[in-house]
Specification:
The protein is mainly alpha-helical and 143 residues long. It has a domain of 87 residues. It has one helix and no strands. The radius of gyration is 59 Å and the shape is rod-shaped.
Length: 143
């Protein structure tokens, strides 16, 4: 019959430990370390790209807000300049209109005076024309 031997064999245990650690060393060197390096590189490319993308998005948002601020300030400044130019144009328009009105009023006064003078002269001529016509009628009637 066979018997079960439960006594540990130190030589066998040492030999198995040596084989285990040798296999562990070989597997670690040939499989685990290259796999971990590859995994790190992949994470750098993906996660690093994520971080880079986040940084780029943050930079884009910052620049976008900066552009919006500059655009808003440009529009405010442009509106102010437009209002100033518009006010200056209105003032110039009012000035030109008032100057034109004054000139036209002076011309109207001058033309009115000329018409009155002309009217008075013609009125005086009517008196002398009436006298000459009366004399002519008188001569015709008496002759």
């Amino acid at each position: 019959m066979s018997s079960l031997n439960l006594v540990p064999n130190p030589q066998l245990m040492v030999a198995q430990a040596v084989v285990f650690f040798a296999n562990l060393y070989v597997v670690k060197r040939l499989m685990v370390e290259p796999f971990l390096k590859l995994k790190e590189k992949r994470e750098e490319k993906t996660t690093g790209s994520d971080v880079l993308a986040k940084n780029m998005m943050f930079e884009c948002e910052r620049k976008e807000s900066e552009i919006e601020k500059k655009t808003a300030s440009f529009f405010l400044e442009n509106n102010e300049n437009r209002k100033k130019i518009k006010d200056e144009a209105r003032k110039k328009q009012q000035q030109l209109l008032s100057q034109s009105r004054e000139e036209n009023e002076q011309k109207i006064i001058s033309y009115t005076k000329e018409l009155r003078d002309s009217y008075e002269q013609e009125k005086k001529k009517i008196g002398s024309a009436v006298n000459s016509l009366s004399e002519e009628f008188y001569r015709i009637i008496l002759s």
